[in-house]
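job 3f2a | input accepted
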Amino acid sequence: MIFPYEPDDTFVIHGTRYSCVHQTDALCVFEPEDSADSATKTLSRAEISFLRRSNNWRFIPGPRTKERMKATLSRGTKALQSAHPEDRASAIFAYMECMNLKTFHDAGAVTLTPKSLDENWEKIVGALRANEETRNIGDAPNRGGRSLPPQRKSHSPETLLKLYRKLRKNNYDPSVLVPRYRVRKGEGRRFS
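job 3f2a | predicted structure (192 res):
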């Protein structure tokens, strides 16, 4: 998941303070806060991911990032946690589908058009099913005769594109994929 950095965010990389001056889906350009300290660094998302797991990276969010994180936390987590279990499972499945599509798109294997998805649909669905089988196995050992949870049917290419665009527009917040059709009728109209 790509997290958008703000210009007022601070990054401590190998002991030097930087700010992010440019970013794409593939890389970020970091400029040192004190130009005498070091040169500009260009890091791929994979390199950033590696650094984040080490002691050579520290992220200090700026005011705008803190506000966005608070808003996302209050909106996203509550919406997903308070959703009906079936809706939550549906949203998580749709999120997994979208992230599978993102993997294919980032690799350049598909473009975000219905025609491209139709042409590569078998590969996309095959990869999703393999991921879902792994995800549904869980930590418990499978005993003989025990069946895996049933797999959901994938969305159509057109629907998946709509879901992916909605997810991308909302900074990959899975709560936007919670179905909105389960509304309790009559709620708030009861007599005490």
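job 3f2a | Residues 10-60 form one domain.
job 3f2a | closed
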